[in-house]
Amino acid sequence: MSTEPSTRQDTKPIISLPAWTMIGLLIAVATLGATFGSDHPVAPFVFSGAAIIGLIGVWFAVKDKDRLAAIVSAIATLGIVFLLIPWIQDFVSTRYPLISNILPWAIVVLLGAVLVFVLIVFFLRKRLSSTIDPPASPAEPSPTPLPLGFHGAPELLEKKFVGREQEFRELDRAWDGVVSGESPHPTVGVIAWGGFGKTVLVRQWLWRRGFDRPGQAPPSSRQGMPGPRARDGNISMPEPNAGDSNDTPDALFWRSFQEGEGADAFALAIISYFSQDPRLEKLPPDSSQQIALLRRAMGERRYLLVLDGLEVEQIKTRGDELGKLKSHFLRDLLREHAAGRLGTGLVVITSRLPLTDLAGENTYGALDLEKRPLKDDEIHLLLKLEGVTQYSEAELQELIGVSGRHPLTLATIAGILETYNGGSATGWQRFDNEIFPPPEGDQNERHLWRVLAWTDGLLNAAEKRVMTTLAHFREPVKLQWLNHLLVPEAANVAGALRGEPPAKQEAVPEPDENASVEERLKWLLGQFESASGSAPTYTPEELRLPGSPMTGQALRRALESLVGLGLLRRDTDTYAMHGLVREHFRRQLAREDQDGPMEIHTRLYRLYTAIIQPVWRPDGLEGLRPLYEAVYHGVRAGLHQETVEDVYRDRILRGTGSDGFYSASKLGAIEADLAAVANFFGQSWRAVSPKLSAPDQAWLLSEAATRLRALGRLREALEPMEAGLDMAVEQENWGSAAIRASNLSELELTLGEIERAVKDGERSVAFADRNEEWDMRMIMRTTHADALHQAGDGAAARALFQAAEEMQAERQPEYPHLYSLRGFLYADLLLAGAERAAWRESVGWIRPPGRIHQETKAPEAGIAEAVEERWMRAGSAYPPYGSGAQAPIADCDRATERATQTLEWMTNDPNAPILTVTLDHLTLARAGLYRALLSGGGSCAIPPKAGDTQLPDTAPQTAVDTHLTAAVEGLRKSGNMDDLPRGLLTRAWVRAVMGDSSGARSDLAEAWKIADNGSMGLFQADILLTRARLLFREDKDRAREDLHRARDLVEEYGYHRRDGELADAEEVVHGRHRK
Questions:
Q1: Same domain, 184 and 83
Q2: Dihedral angle over CA of 587, 588, 594, 597, nearest 10
Q3: Which of 159, 651, 689, 763 is such that its CA lies 20 to 30 A from the CA of 828?
Q4: What parts of the sequence cross the membrane (predicted)?
Q5: Could you tell me how far CA 987 lies from the centroid of its own chain?
Q6: For the stretch 754-773, what's the b/e string if a residue is b when 16 or more beta carbons lie within 10 angstroms of its beta carbon?
Q7: Residue 872 and residue 908 in one domain
Q8: Virtual CA dihedral for 17, 23, 26, 28, nearest 10 degrees?
C-alpha cells in the first residue's frame, strides 16, 4: 500500500457532487410537476420547489467551483421560472390587477440579473483575485528536521511481516489527521499482552510510510523489492513509501523502556534529542519545568513519538490504579500532548496494560490486538514465510489450536518445524509433551510456554546454556560480555573495558602547561578518586560461569542456531530475546538447578561492576546505568550488604555526606534511585530485606520514603515510614523514633489524615523528650504544633511554637527566632488571621466606605493577641472594623520582621539549603500581599474604587513580586513537590488581584495537578477554596460547586483551620452577605 501523496498539480476538472445532486433533484421535481398538468392547483407549488432547488444547486456549484454545474443549474432554474409566469400572472391579476402585466417579467429580469452576476463573478474569480489581492507573504521557514532518534527499536521484519492491514490503516489515518490538521495531536495505544507483535507492528508501519529513512526509500525497496501483489489469498505485501517531505515528521523519537531504567533516563533522552544537546546531564526536578524545557526544545516541529513497552512505567496492581503511570513526567507529557500544548504530532504507545491516564481523552484511540486475532490466511502466510511449507488443512487447524492464534507462539512453532522437521507440519505431535503442566498466567502465555517446552528436548547443552545465561540479563547483550561468562580465553579483559583500565587511569600523565583549567581540574579529580576508591577487579575464573568453558566457535555456532530458530534476535552487535521467552528459560533453570540462578546473578554482578563499568564513580546517568543493573543482580546473588555499601552508597550516591547523593542531587535521577532501592524490598515497602544490617535496613526505609515522597507518591511513602518508626521504637532508638514520627506526621498532614498527624506529632514530642537532645525536642514541638494548627486548635499550636522558640533562643541566643521550615510553619500560624481578613477586605466586607487609604495604626501591645485569640477559633464572621482589622496587619508586620531576619541569617550562610531560603521568600510574599490588601494602599490591592484620588504605591507590589518569584523558582529547584502548591496558591492570589485571571487559573490548575497526583487532600481543599474566593465574580456556579467540594473535604479531613474562611466565602458567594 502506497500512501505517498502526489506533488503534481491536479489538472482534472472539478466535479461538485452536491450541485449535480441538486440538478437531478430539480429534474425529478419538475417532472413531477409536469405530471399534474397546467390546470392542477398543486403544480405551481411543485415548480416553485424545483426553482428553489435550482438556486441551491447554483450555490453549491459556485462554492465548489464547478462551472458546468453552475451553467446547467442557472439555465434550468430560469426555465422553471418561465414556466411559472402564467401561474404568477393569474394569481396577481385576481388580486392586484394594476401590476399583473409587469410583475412576472420584473421577477424574471431580477432573477436573471442575479444569476448572470453570480456567473460573471465566478468565471472571473481567478483574474479578479490576481489583480485585487496583494501578493502572498513569503511562507515562514519550516523548522529544521532532526535526525532519527531510535533507542531500542528492533530490526525490521520487512517482507516477513504478516497481516494487520486494518491497524496500518488506523495508524495512517491518525498520522494523516496530524498532517491535514483535522486531528493535530492524537495518541494511539497499541495494547495487547506479550507476544502479539505490538513493537514490530509499529516498526513496520514506520518502514511502510518511509519515516525511518526520511527523504529516501528503505534499502529493501532500492534492492528491487517487488511492488504490491497478491500472495496466498488476499494478503498483499505493499512496497514501502519513500516518504514525501510534506507528510514526514520533522522529528521521530523512539524509546523502548526497560526494567530498572526509570523514567529519568527517558526524560533526559527526549529533551536531549529535541535540544540536540548530547552533553545534557541534569534536568530540573519538577516535571512542569522539564515539560517547559521540552516544549522550548521541540519548537514548531511536527513530531512522532513512539513509547514502546510503556508497561514498565505503569502500575500493575489490580484495581482502580491498574495502568496508571508512575512517572509525573510521562503523565504530564501525554496530557500536554493531548491538550495540544506541545504543538502538532502523534504519540504511539505500545503496552501490555490499558492507558488509564488517557481513558477520558477524546484524542486517544486504542488498537486492542488481542481482540483482533490473525486470520487463517494470515497464519497460512506466516508459516510459509517462516519456512513451513508442507501441511494439510487439518494440520493447519491443529497448529492454530495449539498456538491460540498467538503470533509469537506461531513464530516459535514455525521455527521449530523448519529447523527440526524439514519445514513440514506432519508429525508435529512428536514435539509436544502432553503432560506439560503450564504455569499460571495469561492464556496466551500458557500457549507459548507449552510450545517453548518443546525446546527442552531439542536444544543441545551449549544452546541451553547460552539461552539461560542471556535470559538473566535485562537488556540486549554484547558478544564480548558473553565471552567473559562462557569463553574465558576469548575475553581480553583490558580490551573489553569501556574506557581505560584502572592501571592506565592512574598512569595518565599530568596535563601540560597549555591545558585548560577544566582539563587540569578533571585530572586532579581523577587523581583524588583513584586514591580514595576504585572499581573491583576479578580474575577470568571469577567471571566465568560454572561448568566447562566453551570455545569461541561453539558460542558463535550456538548463537547462530538460536537466531535461526527465532528464540534470539540479533540487533547490530547485540543479542536479545522476548520477555516471555526470557521468563521461560529463567523458570526452567530454577526448576532444574536451584543454585543456578544465583550463580549467574553473581557473575553478572561482577561483570557490571568491573567490566561493563570499570570507572569507580562514573559521570552522568548513562554512566550509572551499569551500576543500577549491578544492584539488581547483586541482590539476587544474595550479596545484599556488599551491594548496598559498595555499589549503591559508594558509587551511585557517592556517599551520604553534604557532597553525596550524586545521582539525585546532581542528576535528578530520583526514579532510578527508587528502582535500585526497590531491589532490597519484598512485595511491599514495609518488607526490607533481613539480610542487611539493622542500620542499613533503617536507612533504606528512609531512602524509599524520601524518594517516594519526592516523586509525589505519598500514600506509598507511608509504608516505609511506618515500618521505620516501628523498627526504631522496637530498638528503643528514641532519637530515630522522634525523627520518623515527625516525618510521618508531616506526611499524614499533607494527605489529609489530620487526626493521625496530631497523634504522631504528639508521639514525636514524647520520643524526643526521652532522647533529651534540645534541638530534637524543639523541632518535634513545631511538628506537633503545625498538626494542631491545621486541626483548628490555634491556641495549643501557638503555645507549642512559643515553647520551641524559647528553647531555640536559650540554646542559640544569636538566633532567637525559629527559622527554616519551623520558622515558616510558625509564620503560617501568625498569618492565618491576616489571610482571612485580607480576602474579606478585598470584597469590601471590613473597611467602611471612605476609609480605603486611611492610615492604619498598629494596635497597642497585647491587643492583637487578645482579639486574634477570640476569632481564630470561630467559624463565624470576622469582627467589624476596628482593633480586629489592625490585629492582622500587626501579624503581617511581625511575620515580615521575623522572615527578614531569618533570610538575612540564611543569606550569610553559603551552605544554607535552598528550601530554607525559599520558604522565607514565600513568607515575605504572603505577608506583603495580605498587608497591602488590608491597608488598601498598595498596588497589590484591588484597583482603586471610583472617587479615589490617591495614586497607588508601587513599592509593595515590587517587593511582593520579587519575593514571590524567588519563592516559586526556589520551590521548583528544591524538588519538594509537596511544598510547591504553597507558592502557586500565593501567586494565583497576586495575579487575580492584579486582574490576571488567566494567570491565576494557570497556577491553580498546576497546583491541582500536583495535589491530585499526590493525593494531597489539604491542598485540594485549599485550591478549591482559593479558586472560589478569587474567581467567584466570573463564574458563581463554578464557585458554589468548588465551595461545596471544599466543604466536603474540610469536614472529611477535620481541616478546621479553614472553617472561618470557608464560612466567609459561602456567605459572599451564596449572596447571604451584604456590604
A1: no
A2: -60
A3: 763
A4: 14-36, 42-61, 68-88, 103-124
A5: 25
A6: bebbbbbbbbbbebbeebee
A7: yes
A8: -80
Residue with the three cell numbers 530498638: 731
- Calpha distance 216→210 (Å, rounded): 7
Whole-number Å distance between alpha carbons of 90 and 97: 10
Which residues, including other chains, have CB under 8 Å from residue 887's CB and lie 6 or more apart? Answer: 833, 859, 863, 864, 865, 867, 868
Cα 159 vs. chain centroid, distance in angstroms? 35
**pLDDT average, residue stretch 806-813:** 92
C-alpha 751/C-alpha 1021 separation (Å) is 11
Contacts for 129 with CB less than 8 Å, ≥ 6 apart = none
Q: Are residues 221 and 358 in the same domain?
A: yes
Q: Which of 259, 362, 345 is nearest to 294 (CA)?
A: 345
Is 297 a domain residue? yes
| Residue 581 · residue 452 · CB < 8 Å | yes
Q: What is the pTM of this model?
A: 0.75
CA gyration radius for the chain? 38
Which residue matches cell numbers 447571604? Answer: 1072
Planar angle of CA 340, 342, 344, nearest 5 degrees: 65
Q: How confident is the model at residue 449 (pLDDT cuts 50, 70, 90)?
A: confident
Tell whether 277 and 231 lie within a shared domain.
yes
φ, ψ for residue 213 (rounded to 5)?
-140, 75
Residue 793 lies in a domain: no
Give the span between the Cα atoms of 632 and 645, in whole angstroms. Answer: 14
Is the model's pLDDT at 475 over the cut of 60?
yes
Under the banding of pLDDT at 50, 70 and 90, the label for residue 46 is: confident
Measuring CA to CA, how many Å separate 137 from each of 7, 71, 239, 472, 596?
Answer: 22, 35, 39, 61, 72
Phi and psi angles of residue 753, each rounded to the nearest 5 degrees, phi first: -90, 70
Instruction: Pick 1019 or 525 by higher pLDDT.
Output: 1019
Is 496 inside any structural domain?
A: no
Give the mean model confidence (pLDDT) for residues 456-485: 95
Give the separation between CA 485 and CA 856, rounded to whole angstroms.
82
Local confidence band at 913 (pLDDT 50, 70, 90 cut-offs): confident
Alpha helices in 359-432 (DSSP H): 376-385, 393-403, 407-420
Rounded distance, CA 278 to CA 871, Å? 59
Pairing of strands 574-576, 477-478: antiparallel
Q: How far apart are CA 641 and CA 680, in angstroms?
A: 10
DSSP code per residue over 663-708: HHHTT--HHHHHHHHHTTB-SSTT-B-TTS-HHHHHHHHHHHHHHH
380, 300: one domain: no
Domain endpoint, select from 371, 387, 422 = 371
Distance CA 545, CA 482 (A): 10
C-alpha cell at 492: 581480553
Which of 321, 351, 371 marks a domain boundary? Answer: 371
Residue 40 domain boundaries: 17-132
Q: Do 180 and 117 have their domain in common?
A: no
DSSP string, 421-485: STTB-TTGGGG--TT--PPSS-HHHHHHHHHHGGGGGTS-HHHHHHHHHHHT-SS-EEHHHHHHH
Do the Cβ atoms of 712 and 1010 come closer than 8 Å? yes
Q: Quickly tell me which residue has 579483559 as its cell.
A: 493
The rounded distance, in Å, linking the Cα atoms of 372 and 406 is: 11
- Which residues are CB-neighbours of 145 under 8 A, at least 6 positions away? 214, 248, 249, 250, 251, 301
Is 342 found in the same domain as 217? Answer: yes
Nearest-angstrom CA–CA distance, 571 and 152: 9
Residue 550 belongs to some domain of the structure = no
Whole-number pLDDT of residue 78: 75
SS3 assignment for 309-328: CHHHHECCCCCCCCCCECCH
More confident residue, 27 or 603: 603
